[in-house]
C-alpha cells in the first residue's frame, strides 16, 4: 500500500454551526425561540438562547489561518474558512485533505450537547435539541450520504426522552451519541448511578456508540497562571484518562458487555500504561477495595479491551505499540477545524507513522474500525476507489480548491505593543474571558 491508496475516516471533527440551521426544521414560536446567531456592534458573532449569550465557537476554528494567528482566535464566521460552517465547502476541504468521511461534534450546542441542558425552559430545549439533531442528520450529513457519520445529542435531564431520542436517531440511521465522561460536572448523576441504566440498555439494543470527548468532563487543568500555554495543550488528550479509568470500573459494563464506548480526541500512546497500572492496582488492592464484586472476575484491562475504542491524531508511539492497545479498537481523527488539525496534510503525517504496519492493519485503523463501530456502510454509497487519498485529492484539484492561508487579524493574547514572549495560561484565560463579554446590541 502507498499513501494515496489509504481510505481515511476521521472520527473527530467539529462543526461551527451556521445561523440558519433551524430555518428548515422549525416554524412559528418554535423557530422564534430557537438559538439565534447575532452580530455585535464590533462585528463579533455570538449565539443568544434563553437568556444565554454564547460566543461563537469560531474561537477555535483556526484551520486555514496562518499559524502566527492561531492564538488570535477569530470571533466571526466571516473570518473562517467556509468549510467550518458550510457543508459543501467542508466536503471540498475533506477532499483536499484526503478524508473520505468525517464525524462532527457540535460547537454551539457544546460537544456533549450540554447547551440545552443548561437552558431553563426544558420543554423548549427538548424541541430545539431534536431540531438540532434533525439538522445535523438530514441537512449536514444528508447532503452527502456516505461522507459523514451522524452524531446525536440527547436530553439527559429527562431519561425517558433520552431513550426516545436514541431510538428516533437510530431509525434515522444515526448510531452515535455524545456525552460527558463525568456527568456530575453538569449536575447530573455519576456514570455509576442507576439513572443511566435505560441509556445503556437502549444503546445496546440499537447498536449505538457512546462518545466521550475530551474537555466535556475531567478537563486538563492549568498548572498555574504562569505556566506556558503549550504545557496545557500538551496534556489535553490525556485528560480523558481519568474518565477512562472511571468508566472501566463501572458495574454496568458487566450487565451490558456489548456497550460500545469511544474515547474521542484521546490519543492512544498512554493506554498501555493505564491498563498496566489498572491491573496492578486491582491485584494489589482488591482485597480491601472489594473490586472483584463489580469487575465480575475480569481484569480492568480486559474490560477496556472489550468495551472501549479510541482515536489518535499524531501518535507514533502508540502505533509502534499497537499490539498492546488493539488494532481493532483504534481509529484516526483530524480534529478539523481546531488548532491541532493537520489540514491539508493529514495523509502525509499519518502515513509517516503508520506505514510500518500491514495493509490489513492500516485498513482497520484508517476506516474499517470506524465503519464497524459506527455501523457506517460507506462503500454502499461510494466505491472504495473513489474515496482513497489520491482520488479525493484529484477531485479537489479539478474543483480548484484554494488552500491559501488566510489572515484576518484579531486580538493577540499579549498586551498591545508588548514584545513577543512565551504565551502563558493567564494570557489565554484573560483572552477567553474578554471574548465572553458580548457587547449590547
Provide a short characterization of the protein structure.
This protein has 18 helices and 11 strands.
Distance between the termini: 56 Å
Point out poorly predicted stretches: none
- Tell me the CATH topology of the domain at 3-160 and 260-270 and 302-435: TIM Barrel
- The count of DSSP E runs of length 2 or more, i.e. the number of strands, is 11
Quaternary state of this entry equals: single chain
Radius of gyration, in Å, reads 22 Å
Judging by the overall fold, what is the CATH architecture of the domain at 3-160 and 260-270 and 302-435? Alpha-Beta Barrel
Q: Mean pLDDT across all residues, rounded?
A: 94
| Helix share bin | 25-40%
The chain-level structural class is alpha/beta
Number of helical segments?
18
Which CATH class of the domain at 3-160 and 260-270 and 302-435?
Alpha Beta
So what's the overall shape? globular
Percent of residues in beta strands? 5-15%
What order do the SSEs take from the amino end to the carboxyl end, as H and E?
EHEEEHEHHEHEHEHHHEHHHEHHEHHHH
Q: How is the largest sheet built, in terms of strand order? A: 7-8-9-10-11
Largest sheet: 5 strands, parallel
Topology at a glance:
Elements: E1 8-14, H1 28-32, E2 36-39, E3 45-49, E4 52-55, H2 87-96, E5 99-105, H3 114-117, H4 122-140, E6 148-149, H5 159-171, E7 176-179, H6 197-206, E8 209-213, H7 229-235, H8 240-247, H9 252-255, E9 260-264, H10 271-289, H11 292-295, H12 300-307, E10 308-312, H13 316-320, H14 322-325, E11 330-332, H15 346-354, H16 359-373, H17 389-399, H18 425-435
Parallel strand pairs: 1-5, 5-6, 7-8, 8-9, 9-10, 10-11
Antiparallel strand pairs: 2-3, 3-4
Helix pairs in contact: 2-17, 5-6
Amino acid at each position: 500500500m502507498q499513501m494515496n491508496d489509504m481510505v481515511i475516516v476521521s472520527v473527530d471533527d467539529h462543526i461551527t454551526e451556521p445561523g440558519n440551521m433551524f430555518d428548515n426544521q422549525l416554524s412559528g414560536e418554535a423557530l422564534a425561540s430557537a438559538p439565534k446567531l447575532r452580530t455585535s456592534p464590533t462585528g463579533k458573532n455570538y449565539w443568544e438562547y434563553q437568556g444565554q449569550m454564547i460566543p461563537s465557537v469560531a474561537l477555535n476554528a483556526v484551520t486555514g489561518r496562518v499559524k502566527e494567528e492561531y492564538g488570535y482566535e477569530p470571533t466571526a464566521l466571516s473570518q473562517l474558512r467556509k468549510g467550518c460552517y458550510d457543508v459543501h465547502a467542508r466536503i471540498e476541504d475533506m477532499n483536499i485533505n484526503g478524508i473520505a468521511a468525517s464525524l462532527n461534534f457540535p460547537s454551539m450546542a457544546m460537544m456533549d450537547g450540554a447547551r440545552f441542558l443548561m437552558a431553563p425552559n426544558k420543554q423548549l430545549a427538548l424541541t430545539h435539541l431534536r431540531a438540532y439533531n434533525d439538522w445535523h442528520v438530514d441537512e449536514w450529513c444528508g447532503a452527502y450520504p456516505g461522507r459523514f457519520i451522524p452524531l446525536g445529542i440527547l436530553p439527559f435531564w429527562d431519561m425517558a426522552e433520552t431513550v426516545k431520542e436514541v431510538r428516533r436517531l437510530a431509525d434515522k440511521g444515526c448510531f452515535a451519541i455524545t456525552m460527558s465522561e463525568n456527568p456530575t460536572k453538569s449536575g447530573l448523576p455519576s456514570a455509576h448511578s442507576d439513572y443511566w441504566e435505560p441509556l445503556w440498555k437502549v444503546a445496546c439494543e440499537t447498536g449505538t456508540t457512546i462518545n466521550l470527548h475530551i474537555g466535556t468532563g475531567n478537563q486538563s487543568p492549568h498548572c498555574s497562571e504562569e505556566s506556558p500555554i503549550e504545557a496545557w495543550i500538551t496534556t489535553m488528550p490525556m485528560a480523558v484518562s481519568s474518565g477512562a479509568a472511571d468508566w472501566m470500573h463501572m458495574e454496568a459494563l458487566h450487565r451490558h458487555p456489548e456497550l460500545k464506548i469511544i474515547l474521542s480526541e484521546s490519543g492512544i500512546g498512554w493506554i498501555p500504561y493505564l491498563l498496566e497500572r489498572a491491573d496492578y492496582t486491582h491485584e494489589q488492592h482488591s482485597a480491601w477495595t472489594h473490586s472483584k464484586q463489580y469487575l465480575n472476575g475480569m481484569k480492568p484491562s480486559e474490560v477496556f479491551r472489550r468495551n472501549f475504542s479510541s482515536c489518535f491524531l499524531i501518535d507514533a508511539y502508540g502505533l509502534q505499540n499497537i499490539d498492546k492497545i488493539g488494532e481493532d479498537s483504534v481509529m484516526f481523527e483530524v480534529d478539523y477545524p481546531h488548532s491541532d488539525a493537520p489540514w491539508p496534510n493529514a495523509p502525509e503525517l499519518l502515513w509517516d507513522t503508520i506505514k510500518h504496519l500491514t495493509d490489513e492493519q492500516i485498513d482497520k485503523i484508517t476506516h474499517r474500525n470506524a465503519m464497524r463501530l459506527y455501523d457506517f456502510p460507506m462503500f454502499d454509497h461510494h466505491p472504495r476507489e473513489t474515496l482513497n487519498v489520491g482520488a479525493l485529492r484529484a477531485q479537489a484539484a479539478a474543483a480548484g480548491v484554494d488552500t491559501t492561508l488566510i489572515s484576518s487579524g484579531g486580538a493577540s493574547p499579549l498586551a498591545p505593543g508588548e514584545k513577543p514572549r512565551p504565551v502563558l495560561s493567564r494570557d489565554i484565560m484573560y483572552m477567553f474571558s474578554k471574548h465572553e463579554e458580548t457587547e449590547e446590541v
